[in-house]
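tokens incoming
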């Protein structure tokens, strides 16, 4: 076998990147290096530091998807953008401003929620009010529980149409 025979091998085709690859602006509000930098400033970010890069990316994507479902003030800058942010006020003319950044509080909320997801493993469900073993009766509190941790909710409240999960918005 000669040196030329070694170079005649078929090139290895790389497939698409894994689904958990972070693409800031497409599936996450914050890039992975920025999330690492943010987490390094937090006292209780051990779940983030213990997780591998794939789990960190999955947590950021999940956190972004959860935040993306919120009812935000204003409207998306472009109707074709993948995420809810960046946004402009409702009365802002279309096409203006040309560039808008996602608020740092939203980016911080995405990282904080990702750390929370890594620490807890899931979001809390409805709190159980009563359980009975005989005949298996379970009752729940009648109120709606907020699925977001309080520290994340406080970060995003100024940007929400309704400031709480328990506040209804009436549109006319």
């Amino acid at each position: 076998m000669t040196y030329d025979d070694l170079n005649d091998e078929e090139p290895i085709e790389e497939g698409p990147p894994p689904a958990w690859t972070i693409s800031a602006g497409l599936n996450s509000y914050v890039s992975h290096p920025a999330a690492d930098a943010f987490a390094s400033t937090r006292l209780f970010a051990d779940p983030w530091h213990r997780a591998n890069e794939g789990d960190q990316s999955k947590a950021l994507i999940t956190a972004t998807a959860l935040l993306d479902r919120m009812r935000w003030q204003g409207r998306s800058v472009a109707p074709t953008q993948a995420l809810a942010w960046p946004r402009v006020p409702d009365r802002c003319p279309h096409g203006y401003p040309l560039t808008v950044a996602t608020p740092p509080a939203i980016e911080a909320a995405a990282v904080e929620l990702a750390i929370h997801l890594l620490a807890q493993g899931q979001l809390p469900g409805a709190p159980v009010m009563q359980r009975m073993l005989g005949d298996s009766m379970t009752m729940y509190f009648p109120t709606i529980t907020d699925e977001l941790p309080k520290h994340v909710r406080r970060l995003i409240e100024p940007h929400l149409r309704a400031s709480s999960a328990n506040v209804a918005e009436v549109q006319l």
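note: The first helix runs from residue 3 to 7.
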